[in-house]
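Q: I'm writing up a methods section and want to include an example of the input and output format. Could you take the sequence below and give the corresponding predicted C-alpha cells, formatted cleanly so I can copy it straight into the document?
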Amino acid sequence: MGERFWRFYELMNRGIRTFTGPAQIGAGYAEGPDVRPADPACPMCSKLMSLHTIRRSNDQYHATRVLCPR
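A: Here is the clean output for your methods example:
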C-alpha cells in the first residue's frame, strides 16, 4: 500500500511541477545579515523602547501590553 501511494504521489508531483516549476528559495538576490538596532523606537509614540514597560501575562487569555511613557 505504501509503495503504491508513493508512486501516485511522485506522479502527481511530476505533473504539478510542470506548471509551477521548482521551489523558490531565498529572495532572489544576495541578502546580508539582519542587523537590528540596539534600542529601537516605539511604533506608537516614537520614543525608545527601553523607556517602555512591557506587561506580560502568564496565561494565554490576556494579551501582552506595551505601556508607553508619559
